[in-house]
């Protein structure tokens, strides 16, 4: 993985696409190093970053790089607070501060294992760029709260979908699809990103079956490059990992459990 | 074009606040570019304690209006591992005077230490004293005294007594990082000076509480895993300016002023209030090169070109 440029870069928004309940922010980013799937960037709107609800946002926000294509970086946004709200307002031609790519991404499958990509909610973002990079066709299982969010599945190819309300695909949880897949063919490596309860379920399912899993975590972080020590998650054996520099992709066997604060919005 | 501070040669007047920049992690993220263009004229380490500390349980951060409340809990690998593992890796950083970018200066290391008693501080200082890699020692006195429960730095008499015990242990400059959570910060600065400190730095974060309600509503409860936290960022700038002015008006010691500095104009205010150096913390979270931009803006030569 090459180092990130040591400067936040002022980049131009090239598009803001609707994807059901989500938005896909596209940014002209041809000069950046090629990201490793699972890496992230810290984003802040160049104008009016601050002055929203409660005088926020103040700090930049961390987003998985969802895709890099034709000189553009893609980010999946959901309006869940003052930071994502402001970013969702951006239109082509406006500018965004970008620091990255940062963190440690996904590792390639080993030992002839097939890749299963399990995503939930806005956590599907890093699985898209991972699917783009994987040599072999991967099984893609995505879970969403409802039909509007389930349209996010279009970010990936050939996804099987579960929804909490049954409006699209399987009625139930994506982890039920995962268990069925593993029963059919257990020689797999699971890549997962999503809400903390989903990641904890994936961790437990894989641990029971002694299967490797790589979990892309999320935690509130102020900086993204190891300075603030804010994005701590408990690691196996005591102590904490920093999601930004030890992750965001963490081997599941480094964790006893997934911290309830360490996931994406559901 | 360089600056002298407590006998150290610095490329400019902007350093980092302790615990706001991990040079080793940043070098892993940003590579050689960071090493050659280090943003800070001196590097202040995270607080080091005698024993390793895991830090506070998450969540550790809360975004406040114009600022940040943190409850990190001083995670660090402990004195022995810091000296053995980190000191060698903290060498090699170079910082350029803004108006003379071809004359990079080595970045002196200021090691920040915290003890919960005078004897713990003494052990930390005795271990740092013989290490040439350490240019100066900053004392984090925002820790409760294990005996009295009071912050060591909040009680002028106690602070002076501690400094008197520590002063003979090293010839390196001793900088006292004052706590702002006290009735009379200038009296504490005076006490630090009377005890033999070479400089003071302020402000540390202001004690703050973030309450959160669950999805079901109900009464607010402390959001941060550590209970209360410390407020930093733009929200504290005016408070910091007043405290720095009060301290600089009372003591002749050089003052490192910090608290919400984001631009050269903010830094200029802090220098006008009497600071000899300024430190940047939360602004580096938003922009890891914030200190470089501030130093350029402070320099009469480079500011004209900006």
Architecture overview:
The complex is a heterodimer of chains A (266) and B (306). Chain A is of the alpha/beta class and 266 residues long. Chain A has helices at residues 82-89, 125-133, 147-150, 174-184, 196-208, 243-246, and strands spanning 9-19, 22-28, 40-45, 61-64, 67-69, 72-77, 95-102, 114-120, 139-144, 159-163, 170-171, 188-193, 213-216, 232-234, 240-242, 249-251. In chain A, strands 4-3-7-1-2-6-5 form a 7-stranded antiparallel sheet. A 7-stranded mixed sheet of chain A has the order 11-10-9-8-12-13-16, sandwiched between helices. A two-stranded antiparallel sheet of chain A has the order 14-15. In chain A, helix 4 packs parallel to helix 5 (196-208). The two termini of chain A are 30 Å apart. The model of chain A has no long low-confidence stretch (mean pLDDT 96). By secondary structure, chain B is of the alpha/beta class. Chain B has helices at residues 23-30, 32-36, 79-89, 118-128, 156-166, 185-195, 237-250, 264-272, 282-286, 290-298, 300-305; strands at residues 3-5, 8-10, 14-16, 43-44, 61-64, 67-70, 94-95, 105-106, 109-113, 134-140, 174-177, 199-202, 206-208, 211-214, 217-222, 229-232, 255-258, 277-280. In chain B, a hairpin with a 2-residue loop joins strand 14 and strand 15 (217-222). The radius of gyration of chain B is 19 Å and the shape is globular.
């Amino acid at each position: 993985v090459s180092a990130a440029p040591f400067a936040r870069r002022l980049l131009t928004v090239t598009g803001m696409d609707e994807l059901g309940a989500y938005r896909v922010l596209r940014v002209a980013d041809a000069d950046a190093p090629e990201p490793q799937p699972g890496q992230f960037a810290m984003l802040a709107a160049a104008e009016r970053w601050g002055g929203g609800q409660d005088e926020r946002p103040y700090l930049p926000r961390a987003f998985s790089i969802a895709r890099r294509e034709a000189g553009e970086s893609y980010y999946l946004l959901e309006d869940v607070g003052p930071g994502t709200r402001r970013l969702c307002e951006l239109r082509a031609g406006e500018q965004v501060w970008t620091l990255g790519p940062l963190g440690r991404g996904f590792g390639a499958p080993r030992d002839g294992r097939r890749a299963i990509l399990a995503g939930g909610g806005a956590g599907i973002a890093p699985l898209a760029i991972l699917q783009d990079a994987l040599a072999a066709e991967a099984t893609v299982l995505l879970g969403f709260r409802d039909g509007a969010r389930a349209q996010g599945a279009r970010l990936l190819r050939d996804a099987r979908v579960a929804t909490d309300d049954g409006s699209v695909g399987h009625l139930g949880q994506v982890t039920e699809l995962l268990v069925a897949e593993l029963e059919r063919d257990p020689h797999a490596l699971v890549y997962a990103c999503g809400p903390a309860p989903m990641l904890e379920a994936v961790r437990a399912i894989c641990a029971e079956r002694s299967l490797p899993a790589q979990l892309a975590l999320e935690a509130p972080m102020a900086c993204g490059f190891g300075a603030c020590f804010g994005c701590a998650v408990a690691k196996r054996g005591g102590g904490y990992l920093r999601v930004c520099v030890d992750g965001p992709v963490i081997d599941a066997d480094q964790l006893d459990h997934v911290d309830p604060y360490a996931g994406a919005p559901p | 074009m360089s600056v002298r501070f407590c006998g150290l040669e610095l490329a400019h007047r902007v350093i980092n606040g302790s615990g706001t920049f991990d040079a080793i992690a940043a070098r892993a993220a940003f590579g050689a570019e960071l090493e050659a263009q280090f943003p800070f004229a001196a590097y202040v380490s995270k607080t080091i304690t005698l024993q390793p500390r895991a830090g506070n349980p998450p969540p550790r951060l809360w975004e406040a209006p114009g600022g940040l409340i943190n409850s990190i809990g001083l995670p660090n690998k402990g004195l022995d591992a810091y000296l053995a593992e980190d000191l060698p890796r903290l060498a090699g950083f170079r910082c350029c005077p803004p108006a003379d970018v071809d004359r990079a200066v080595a970045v002196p290391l200021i090691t920040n230490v915290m003890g919960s008693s005078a004897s713990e501080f003494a052990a930390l200082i005795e271990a740092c004293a013989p290490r040439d890699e350490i240019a100066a020692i900053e004392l984090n006195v925002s820790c409760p005294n294990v005996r009295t429960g009071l912050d060591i730095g909040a009680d002028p008499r106690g602070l002076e007594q501690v400094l008197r015990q520590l002063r003979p242990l090293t010839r390196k400059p001793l900088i006292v990082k004052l706590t702002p959570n006290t009735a009379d910060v200038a009296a504490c600065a005076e006490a630090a000076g009377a005890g033999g400190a070479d400089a003071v730095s302020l402000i540390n974060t202001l004690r703050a509480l973030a309450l959160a309600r669950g999805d079901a509503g109900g009464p607010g409860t402390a959001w941060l895993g550590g209970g209360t936290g410390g407020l930093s960022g733009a929200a504290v700038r005016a408070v910091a300016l007043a405290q720095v002015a009060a301290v600089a008006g009372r003591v002749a010691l050089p003052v490192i002023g910090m608290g919400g500095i984001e631009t050269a104009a903010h830094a200029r205010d802090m220098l006008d209030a009497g600071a000899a150096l300024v430190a940047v913390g939360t602004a580096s979270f938003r922009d890891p090169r914030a200190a470089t931009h501030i130093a350029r803006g402070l320099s009469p030569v480079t500011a004209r070109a900006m």
